[in-house]
Structures are given as C-alpha cells and as structure tokens.
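#lab-general

N.A. 3:47 PM
ok so I finally got the sequence cleaned up, no stray characters, all 269 residues accounted for. can someone with queue access submit it? mine expired

B.Y. 3:52 PM
send it over

N.A. 3:53 PM
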Amino acid sequence: MEYNELFARTELLVGSAAMQQIATKKVILFGVGGVGSWCAEGLIRSGIMNLTIVDSDRVALANINRQLPATTKTIGELKVDVLKDRLQEINPNAFITAIPEIYDSESSGSFHLEEYDYIIDAIDSLSNKAHLLVTASKTNAVTISSMGAGLKLDPQKIRVTEFWKVRGCKLAAALREKMKKGEKTAKPILCVYSEEIQKNRGENALNNADENGSFRKARINGTMVQVTAIFGFTLSGLVIQDIIDKSNSETVSSKITEATDANYHKVTV
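B.Y. 4:20 PM
back already:
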C-alpha cells in the first residue's frame, strides 16, 4: 500500500508539501498508557513514519477502561509490543521502534533525545517526568507534555498552554515545585491539561484489579477514556499542527523569496 493511498484524505486537507514533511519527522513517545497509546495512534494515522514508543509496563486488567493496547486477550503482554503490532497493521511501512524500558535519570542517555524532531511526554512518575522535561528542553526537538488526566470527567475542560502557565493541575504544580528546587526547563514546553476539579467517588474499586507492579502509584485516581484519549489525540494534533505550520511558513517564505528574486531580475535587466 502506497503512502499517498493511505493518507489521501489527509493530504487533501493539509497539502502535499506538509505530508512530505510529516513523513520525514522522527518522534519519540514516552508512556503508552491511557494518554500515550491514543497519541501513538493519532501520529501513525496522520502519516508519521518514524515513531519510537517507550514503556516498560505490561497490560493489566485495570487498564481496560482507558488504554488502547488493553483488552481481555492482551493482559500480561508488554504494552509497547501490543501497540506496535496494531500500528504496523495501520501502516506496515512505518518504522516503529518499541522499547520496553523505564525512562529515568540513569537510562536517559540511552534514548539519544537529540536525534528526534519531537519528544512527547506521557509518563506519570513525577521524578522521571521532571527529568525528561528538563533534559528534552535542552535539545533542538519540540517537546510536548501531558499533565494529569486522572480525576477528570469533562472533556470540555481540556486546555493547552505553556508548562509554567498551567493552572488547576496538581501534577503540574508538583513538577514546578520540584523544578524550583533543582534544574528548570531551558525553553517553553507546550502542555495538555484540564482545569477540572474532581474527586474520586468510588471506594475500593481496585481491590481486585491489579495495577502494573513495575510502578505502583502512591495514589490511584479514577479515569475516563473520553478524557485520556482526547489528551492523547491533542498531543498528536499539536505535533502534526506544528509540522504543518512550519511547512506552510517555509513554503510561503520560499515563494516570497522567489517572487522577490523574479521582480529584482526584472528591474535590473
């Protein structure tokens, strides 16, 4: 199946120049859970051809309510492996690298972040997330991050802004507090977040539903796929929009240059 055939409808919307740019970009995504898995789907269905997905977790029963790789048949399997298989079925020609590892201060160098055009953060460990954002901000890559999607019910409260301007998100507040005591981000980072204030209404719902043993949250919050998926699709949308905007800017800039040169030659001949 040819690239142009798979993404003909997308090309109608964004143009061939933008599609060519989308196909050339290298993207790395950290975390393929309730947010990241949908982000990966959005990227591949939009024409991204080079995607690296990073997550050490295996599918658990408690993931089924919100995570793309999670079904009753995939429990116990590595999320990145399940997701890679799905993404390759969407576009067999896409180059997808699945890394079943945790990003942390010790492993960060192995990911070679400087090689990517876009770095997407969808992990939920506070210290690892802070380290990733600081490290990614030192590269030339565009970095985009998801704040907390737990305890959110209303998709209409989802917003996008720069990291230091996020309000109403406890995760963002905790990250900023941590960075104030240590190293801060070197450049602006766009974030997806929700302004909604919500509380867990259920009790003991997870007593019999095993969460991933590799990283047990100190506090488990309720989640809804209608919110986490929109977080993920918004992350992918921000990447694609940035590529399109830059492609259009370059196209307009080159046209202006060509027109200026043409007029200059007309005058000077």
